Amino acid sequence: MFAGRNYELQYLNTYYERAGSQIMVLYGEKNVGKTALLTRFTKDKPGYYYRARSASEREQRFQWGRELNAATNDEARYPSFSEIFTMIPDADDRKKVIVIDEFQNIVKAGGGFMKELCAYVRSRKELPVLVILVSSSIGWVENSMIIRIGEAAYELSGFFKIKELSFGALLDFFPRFTMNQCVETYAVLGGVPGLWKHFDDKLDIKENICRYILNKNAFLHEEGLRIVEEELRETGIYNTILAAIAAGKHKLNDLYHHTEFSRAKISVYLKNLMELELVEKVFSYDTEGKANTQKGIYRISNHFVHFYFTFIYPHLSDIERLDEKAFFERYIEPYFDRYVAGCFKLVCKEYIEEWNRAGELPIKVERIGEWVGKTGTIDFVAQNESGETLLGICNWEKPAMEYEDYERLLSCAEKAKLGTEHIYLFSSHRFDEKLRMEAGKNAEIKLFGMDTM
């Protein structure tokens, strides 16, 4: 659960070592590993943790006071927030860490919490504190919080967003999986370690999906809907849009014709989905070949939500009447490689970015993206400051990447008016003989199979 968080831990420790008291906001989607990170961070420090309820302000104060009084068996009452803060004990003369989890539940219920917290922090001159306000509500923190807390925003020392873990961290988390199995798992669960713990690397991907997603008693069975419904109202509209995108309706006009919602309405709901990082708008890499480029398209960016709306949501009736194996074989297995192929591109891009940081590419990449053409795509386009270009495509589905795939890449590059100084080709299987011979003659063509990645 803690894999891949060394940078975040170092950042928090650097923050802790600052002089005086601070209030910081730490946020990220549910199950991304915030609690595991904070548990490790506070392991050797005097600390206190409170998980806020979704309740009225009075009930919140009652429950918080009850928790603090539990050790002394004092009678439960309704302390003010100022009284609550002074009730939190000091273990020694070191800086204390106070973690208030899902703090948005308190702020939304009333206006007194932040004002009293700021006054408490200002009063801690002799024994400084670091207050970490934690939230799983990304959209609220980034778009509503500052307005809601008013002048208290000036008292915040900073924000720290905990993002999904990388594919490399998933490789470490599942040591028994093959490289291919890790890509498949990443396509289903994404970089969310709270979901990883529900998979077993002693089982193959089919057995994991059947046992831990399709099984009606499994934790992950309705997790795809929960992710959407937890932060949104009018879920019927959002589900309609997500199902349409998962079915291949990637343009605003496609969504309009499929849903018959107005374009203005769809745009508003897409904006909300993007704020929650469930959907992304993909813009093609900017090149001179604009005439051959598609305008922005929409994709589901949350891997598990994408999996749910691709395979489960359209077949809810059959998931009730079929056993897990039969459902998988009918609705998932025939189309799973096509689904994973999209994620494999992200994995390859991550490798390119890692090699760039390590100085292992022929150019120092300053910009990287995807070229989305009207008749084809280039999976990644990377350029340095002078415009020298590295192009790449990825093959997951076919038993071999063929020379014709390389030719299509060159054709797309011509339409995009891009240089072809460096070509990186990734394949989950093999490369055909003609392509291997071409790579042997042309030093700028690099072939990467799963064994060499």
Q: Which helices and strands occur, and which strands form pairs?
A:
Layout: H1 6-16, E1 22-27, H2 34-41, E2 47-51, H3 57-69, H4 81-87, E3 96-101, H5 104-109, H6 113-123, E4 129-135, H7 138-143, H8 145-149, E5 158-161, H9 167-173, H10 179-189, H11 193-196, H12 205-214, H13 223-229, H14 235-246, H15 252-259, H16 263-275, E6 279-282, E7 297-300, H17 303-312, H18 316-321, H19 324-332, H20 336-357, E8 367-372, E9 377-383, E10 389-395, E11 400-401, H21 403-416, E12 422-427, E13 430-431, H22 433-441, E14 445-448
Helix pairs in contact: 1-2, 4-6, 10-17, 10-20, 12-19, 13-17, 14-17
What would you say this structure looks like, in words?
The chain is of the alpha/beta class and 453 residues long. It contains 22 helices and 14 strands. 46% of the residues lie in helices and 15% in strands. It has a five-stranded parallel β-sheet, with no helix packed on it. Helix 1 packs across helix 2 and helix 4 crosses helix 6. The mean pLDDT is 94.
